[in-house]
Amino acid sequence: MLRPSLVMVIMAVVSTVSxxxxxxxxxxxxxxxxxxxxxxxxxxxxxxxxxxxxxxxQWVDIALPDVWPKAKLTDASGKPILRKPPMLGWYKIRxxxxxxxxxxxxxxxxxxxxxxxxxxVYLNGQSFYQSGDVTxxxxxxxxxxxxxxxxxGLVKTGENALLIRLHTEKHGRVGVAAVSIGPLNEIKPVYxxxxxxxxxxxxxxxxxxxxxxxxxxxxxxKRNKETQxxxxxxxxLMGVLRLLAYFMISPPPIIANVAVAALCxxxxxxxxxxxxxxxxxxxxxxxxxxxxxxxGTIAVFAVPAEALPITTFAVYLVFTVLGVVxxxxxxxxxxxxxxxxxxxxxxxxxxxxxxxxxxLLNFVGELEFERMYLLPxxxxxxxxxxxxxxxxxxxNSLNSYEQLNTELSQRVTARERDLDASYAQMRIIDxxxxxxxxxxxxxxxxxxxxxxxxxxxxxxARMKKLEPKQLEESLADCIDELKLTIDSLExxxxxxxxxxxxxxxxxxxxxxAAGIRLAWSVTDLPSLPYLDPTxxxxxxxxxxxxFTNALKHAKANRITVSTGVEQMQNRIWVRITDDGIGVATxxxxxxxxxxxxxxxxxxxxxxxxxxxxxxxxxxxxxxxGTCVTLYLPLHSPMGSAESV
Amino acid sequence: xxxxxxxxxxDDTAFRARYADILGRxxxxxxxxxxxxxxxxxxMLDLRKPDILLVDLGLPDISGxxxxxxxxxxxxxxxxxxxxxxxxxEHVVASIEAGACGYLLKDATDQDFLxxxxxxINGGSPISPVIARRLLKRFHVDKSAAAEMQHSxxxxxxxxxxxxxxxxxxxxxxxxxxxxxxxxGSNNLVQSGxxxxxxxxxxxxxLASKGYNYPEIGNLLSISPxxxxxxxxxxxxxxxxxxRGEAVFEANRMGLIQTL
Lengths: 644, 260
Description:
The complex is a heterodimer. Chain A is about 50% helix and about 15% strand. By secondary structure, chain A is α+β, with helices and mostly antiparallel strands. In chain A, strands 1, 3, 4, 8, 10, 11 and 13 form a seven-stranded mixed sheet that branches. Chain A has a five-stranded mixed sheet with strand order 16-17-18-20-19. Chain B is of the alpha/beta class.
C-alpha cells in the first residue's frame, strides 16, 4: 500500500503527466471502462452568451493540455480563431458510459491536474460543479487541481457530453491540462496526491511559518540583540504572504502583487539570516538586495495590470540572479567558518534557489503545463536551519549553565574552605586568648594568694620566728587560698547559693572546731549571669574574709548567713551576722564605718564589692555583733572585676 | 565487733604514716596493707579482700579510679573511699561513678578523718553542694535522654512490625529474635529507670546543693541526720550503677542501630 502511493507521489512531483494510464485515441469517443483514461483531445469553442453553446456552435478539435497563448487554433475553413482573455472558453468532452458502469455501482469522476481559472461543469446540459466564484470579472484562481464526480442521475448509457466552461482572466496565463476520466476509485487517489502537494502542503507550511515567525519575532522582541531571530521571523511572515496564493480558492486579485513583493523580502531576510551564522558581511551585496527588494515591491504595485506578468518575470529573474550570488556568498563564508547551522542554512537556501529556478521556468511556460510549483515545498527546509540554530543555542546555554554551576560550586567550596580556615584561625586565637586570660588569672592568684602567703611564711622561717602553731595556721591559710582558687573554678552555673554553700561546706569543719554555730537561712537566688570564675573568686574572698574576721577577731559563737532579693533595687543581698564583739571594736578602730579609714580588710572587701558592681555594708549591731551585707546587682555590673 | 580491714593505697609516705597513726588509734580499724602504687593495690585487693579501701587518685602508675572500679566489681562489700587534696567536683564525681561512696580531704583533722570513716562504715557519705547539684543534673538529663531513646525504640519496633507482615517465615524468626533483643534493650531501660533518684533523694540533694548540712536537712525533712547521710550514700551507689548502665545502654543502642 505504501509503495504504490510513494511511487505515485514521486511521479506526481517529477512529472504530472501520468504515463501509466492509457491515453484515448484521437477522434474517437472513449468508452469508460474499469480504468482511468487520459484524454489528450477535446472540442473547444468560444461562446460568450449566457446560454450553453449549441451543437451548432463553432467547435474545433484541440489537443490537451491546451495553453491559450501557445496553441494556434483554426476553424474548419482554416481561419485562425483568436483567443484573447477575458473570454469564455468551452471544452466539450464526449464519452460513452456502458450500462454496467453507468447505472449500478461505479461512479464516474473527472480529474484535471491544472486549470488556470475557475470552471463550471455541465453534464448533458445540466450544470453540476463550480470550482470557485465564476461570477467575478477578474479571478486569480491559477493553482488548483480539479476533481469532480459525475452525478449518477445525469449519466446516460451510451454517449454523454461533458461541458467545461473556463472563465478566463484578462492578464493571466490560460490553459487546461489533459483530462483524466474514469471510475471514481481510480481517479480520486491521483487527485488526492496532487491536491496534497499543490495546495494542502503549502497551507500547512504556511501555518508552520506563522508559528515559527511569531516565535522568532517574540524571541527578538525579548532579546533585541538577537537580530537573527528578527530576520528569520520577518522572513517567515513574508513566506506566509507568498504562500497564500498557492492554496486560496478565490483570492483577491491583489494577492498576485503581494506574492511577488513577498518573494523579494523573503530573499533579502533569508540572506540576512543566513549570513549571521558567520562573521562575514557583504555590505555592497546587502545594499543591492535591499534596493532590488524596494524597487521590485514598488514596481509590482505601481505597474498597470497588463504589465504585471512581465514585471513579475523581471523581478523573479533579478532575484534568481541575486539568489545565485547570495548562495555563492553564503557558501564562501560557510566554507571558511564551517559551523553546522550555517551549513544547514546554506543547503536549505541552495535547494530553494533550485526550486525557485524551476518555478521561474514553469512560470514562463518552458516546462510542461501540468508542472507544479515547487518552491512552497522547499520552505520548511529553512525551519531546519532555525531548529539547528535553536538547538545550538540551547545546548550551548545548557553547557555554560553547567559550567557555571561547576564553577559556582567550586567557588563555594573554596569559600567554605577559606571560611573554615578562618574559623579555625579564630578558634585558635580564641583559645589562645582564653588560655592567656586563664594564665593571667592564675598568675595573679598565685601571686596575691598562695605566693604571698608562702613568701611571708618563708621570711618568718628564715628569721626563726616561726612557732609550730603559727606555721600550722599559715599553711592552713595557704591551703585555703588554693581551695578558693579551686572552688572558683567549679561549675557553679551562675548560682550564688551554690558558691556560698560550697564555701560553707569547706569552712564548716573549722567553724565547728572553733565552737561556732552556723545558721543557714538562705532563700533561692536568681542566677547571676555575670558570675565567671574571676567574679566567683571575688565573692568567695569577700565572704571568706567576713567568716575569717568573725572566726579570728570577733570571738563569735554564732554566725547567721541569709540571702534575699530586692527586685525594686535590682539586686540581691547576702547577709552575714555574728554575735561577736564587732569588727570595729575588734580592730580598735573608729565606730564610723564605711570610711576609707575603716580598716584595711573592710576597705579591701568594699573595693572588691564595688568592682563587682555591688556594695558592701558593715553595720555594728546594738548589743554586740556585726552585720555585713553584700549587695550584688541582678544583671551584669558596669565595672569589670578583672582587676581584682 | 570485728575491726574493719583497711587497705591503704597512697604514694606519699608521710600520709601513709599519718593514716597508720590515725587508724592505729581506733580499734574499729585494722590496716591490712599500705602500698604506694596501683599495681600493688590491685594485688593486695585480690589477696586481702579488705572491707575498706582508702585510695589516693594521683598514683604514680595508674589512676586510683581503676582500683576503685576493680574493687567495686570484685568486692561488692568493700567500701571505697577516695582521699583527695581539694575534693573538687571533677575528681570526686569520677570516683563516685567508679564506685566510691565517700571521700576524704587530705587536710582534714584527725578527728574529721576518723569521723568520716565511721560515717562510712555506718552507711553514710559526705556531699558538697557542687556535687549534689551535679548528681541532680546527671539524673535529670539522663532521664530525658532515656525517654527520647525509649521513644525511638518504640518507633523502630513499629517499623519492624510493619515490615514483618510482608516478609517470609524465615525472616519472621529473625525478626522475633530482634524483637527479643529489642525487649532486652527496653529491660535495660527499665533498669536504668529503677536507678532513678527517689523524691526524697532529690529533696536531699536539692537542699544539699543550697548549702544545708545534714542536721539542717534532717530538720527540714523531719528525718535524722543519719538517714540523710545514708540517702546520700544511696545516691552515690545509684550514680555508679547508672554510669555502668549508661555504658550498657550505649552498647545496646549501637546494637539497635546495627539491627535497623
